[in-house]
Design brief:
The protein is α+β, with helices and mostly antiparallel strands. It contains three helices and 25 strands. The strands form six sheets. It has a five-stranded mixed β-sheet with strand order 14-15-16-17-21, with no helix packed on it.
Length: 367
């Protein structure tokens, strides 16, 4: 009897000890692993409807919602978390672009023209004022300063694209540039420079148009395979953010907008170095999250991502999913505890960017 009781006590003590060891391991893994983990994406929009694109005021997020098979621009109060439609009526609308100084919201609108109009409202007014003709195919609104609304237009199916500027005060439109391929235009706040993507012999490049000089002043290629997507300027205009389709993630033998997208950035001032034409860019997200439409706020970057079942808007630190203060050792430690192959590729890209141009070649030994 005594022997049986002693045996039970020993077994109970051993089980308790094992539990203590497991608990210690879990706690230590959480403490030391978390220290070297990637930043997490924080979800901003919710629900079964898909939500994508974004533009920011100090208090609101403006975005496109797929609502009962229609596209509608919604606003979300970032303090109260309440959402509501911005434009009167139920006609399709998308591509919201907010003008902070004038409280204007520009967008693409399809009520009067199935090809698309470019319109704007002065918030909180909900009635659109459209600036384009019904015979045009108009898209991609962007602001060139406070009172000039830029957009792309095509007058016929076979015509080239025209990058135009509409003066809200004079109600006059002028053409800035005519080109076969223009996409995702965005301008500096002073309206002096427009950045956009274009193509040359099926190769994507980033172009800079000087509004005062009335000509394209630079074209930049990135050391990246694949195709470019959307483009935006950071809140302080120190960085250009863009999305890029790096590889054929859906295995259809083509790299295009149906593949997973990755977000990058590059310092804006570098792009004006006329003696350089090819640049490397800093990767901010991994292909696993399939993020697009980067938009910079004061503290965070807002992204449209698709990894939890449908398109939703998330926010992350401006530096992206990696801590910009990490050195080589911390990056390699993060690589060891990374939970996915795409996260490890993101970390390796950061290591290569930082150390490939230095005399320290130790990072090669770990490949």
């Amino acid at each position: 009897m005594v022997s049986f009781i002693s045996k039970k006590r020993i077994e109970s003590s051993m089980r308790l000890r094992v539990k203590q060891i497991i608990l210690i391991l879990l706690i230590s893994q959480n403490i030391f692993g978390k220290k070297n983990r990637l930043n997490e994406l924080e979800r901003v929009t919710f629900g079964s409807s898909e939500n994508y694109q974004s533009s920011l005021s100090d208090t609101h997020l403006y975005f496109t919602k797929v609502n009962k098979q229609t596209l509608q621009i919604y606003a979300k109060n970032l303090l109260t978390k309440k959402e509501y439609p911005v434009i009167k009526g139920d006609a399709d609308s998308k591509d919201p672009v907010f003008n902070k100084n004038k409280n204007f919201l520009a967008f693409s609108y399809f009520k009067h023209n199935a090809k698309g109009d470019v319109c704007f409202i002065k918030l909180p007014n909900k009635t659109p004022h459209c600036i384009t003709k019904k015979t045009w195919h108009s898209s991609s609104p962007f602001w060139l300063g406070d009172n000039i609304l830029g957009f792309l237009k095509k007058e016929s199916t076979n015509s080239s694209l025209q990058m135009c500027a509409y003066d809200i005060d004079t109600q006059r439109t002028k053409t800035l540039l005519t080109k076969k391929d223009i996409s995702s235009p965005v301008a500096t706040k002073d309206g002096n420079f427009v950045f956009f993507f274009s193509k040359d012999k099926d190769e994507d490049y980033l172009a800079i148009y000087d509004v005062k000089k009335k000509r394209q002043i630079n074209s930049i290629a990135f050391l990246l395979p694949g195709r470019s997507g959307s483009l935006s300027l950071s809140d302080k205009e120190d960085y250009i953010y863009f999305s890029h389709y790096l590889n054929d993630t859906n295995f259809d033998q083509t790299i295009d907008a149906n593949d997973h997208s990755v977000v990058f950035r590059i310092a804006k001032d570098k792009l004006f170095l006329t003696n350089r034409r090819i640049f490397s860019a800093e990767q901010l997200s991994s292909s696993e999250y399939n993020c697009n439409f980067p938009k910079s706020g004061k503290k965070n970057i807002y992204l449209t991502c698709s990894f939890e079942g449908n398109l939703q808007i998330y926010k992350a630190p401006k530096d992206g999913l990696l801590n910009n203060l990490w050195g080589k050792d911390q990056l390699w430690q993060a690589h060891k505890v990374a939970r996915s192959y795409s996260d490890r590729l993101l970390i390796l890209a950061k290591i290569e960017q930082i150390y490939s141009k230095t005399k320290d070649k130790d990072y090669f030994k770990s490949f």
